[in-house]
Amino acid sequence: MSDVQRYSRKHMVLHWVIALMVLAQFVLADGMSAAFGARMETATGGWTTGAIVHAVLGTSIGLLMLWRLCIRLTTQIPPPPTDAPAVIQKISSATHWAFYAILIGMPMAGALAWFYQARMIADLHEISAKALVVLVVLHICGSLYHHLIKGDRQVIRRMIPR
Length: 162
Known about the structure:
Radius of gyration: 18 Å
Order of helices and strands: HHHHH
Number of strands: 0
Distance between the termini: 25 Å
Shape: elongated
Number of helices: 5
Low-confidence stretches: none
Largest sheet: none
């Protein structure tokens, strides 16, 4: 069991930078959907400013998540709250690992769908986006539960840079 009480500064900065980038991706997703549709119709078109920004952000998120995964696997992190039921700890752990899987896998699926004009992979990318929304909601609800209902202010504080 770890005696670390806060995430490392790298963890924190990457968490918040990636969160903002993911938010931007959802704002820009319509532009990429339109560009992908045009690419599927013409086989050569589709690169728009929105598509380029979406691709650059997605690639950046994937690379930052790989870096974050390396940090996660090589440094200690704070333990879960000791009073959290085992099922909640399992859901929390599964949610965190699912973030890594989706935020590393989605950019790869998006690139494959784009360059190979693969509708099925594009559909997987879109389904992953919906799963990501569910994960974000679970993550935020878990944080708010600890902060507002349990009164455990340390859960949120350990991820906020000082």
